[in-house]
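Chapter summary example.
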Amino acid sequence: MGKGDFRDICPLLQRFRNFLLGRQHTKALRFSPEVATRSPPLPNLPDGPSHRLFNNYYYSRDGRREVAPPAVINTQNRIGSCESEGAVISKKGVTPGPVYSWD
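The structure predicted for these 103 residues follows.
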């Protein structure tokens, strides 16, 4: 079967159908030259932290255990807010509405 041997109507009726549709008609049938191959090329990926066989434990590569609260990198004092130079400002964060305690 060649490229133009797909089951469809004659070219004159194809143009008429496309004119009435207002777009190019796409057939619902799938013919082998238009379908992707069953064996695509394998991806070429670099080795990651979990590719080795030795010393590769689940707890060390579990992303959920890597999550931690954000670390405070820089704290700047406001001018006139603290009398001492080395005082640390501790302000509780603003919550969007009342907090419901589940316990």
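To summarize the output: Residues 1 and 26 are 19 Å apart (CA to CA).
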